[in-house]
Amino acid sequence: MSNTPKHIDLIALDATLRVSEVASILFQLEMKGVVMAQAGKQFKTI
Q1: Euclidean distance between the first and final Cα of the chain, in Å?
Q2: Strands 6-7, 35-38: parallel, antiparallel or unpaired by DSSP?
Q3: For residue 36, what are the β-bridge partners?
Q4: Taking the CB of residue 22, how many other CB atoms lie within 10 A of it?
Q5: Which of 23-42 are b and which e, b meaning 16 or more Cβ less than 10 Å from the residue's Cβ?
Q6: What confidence score (pLDDT) does residue 46 get?
Q7: How confident is the model at residue 5, as a pLDDT?
Q8: Cα 29 from Cα 23, distance rounded (Å)
Q9: CB atoms near residue 11 (< 10 Å)
Q10: pLDDT on residue 30
Q11: Considering the entire predicted model, what is its pTM?
Q12: Which residue(s) pair with 43 in the sheet?
């Protein structure tokens, strides 16, 4: 993860996890203020 937005599918591919698992992790990180959701299912670090 970086300040550059990255699509959830690419994050899952890099992490070798299912998209559903990554979505859950990203949601938790978003609630903690670590990542920010962007348009088009993209995420970046804050």
Answers
A1: 10
A2: unpaired
A3: 44
A4: 19
A5: beebeebeeeeebeeeeeeb
A6: 93
A7: 97
A8: 10
A9: 20
A10: 97
A11: 0.91
A12: 6, 37
β-bridge partners, 6: 43
Question: φ and ψ at 44, to 5 degrees?
Answer: -145, 160
Contact 4, 36 (CB under 8 A): no
Q: Can you say whether the dihedral through the CA atoms of 7, 11, 17, 22 is positive or negative? A: negative
Containing 43, the helix (H) or strand (E) segment is strand 42-45
Q: Write out the two tokens for 36.
A: 């920010």
Per-residue pLDDT of the chain (46 residues; tens, 9 = 90+): 789 999 999 999 999 999 999 999 999 999 999 999 999 999 999 9
The enclosing H or E element of 29 equals helix 19-31
Q: Which residue has the tokens 């970086």?
A: 2
- Do residues 43 and 8 make contact, with C-beta atoms less than 8 angstroms apart? yes
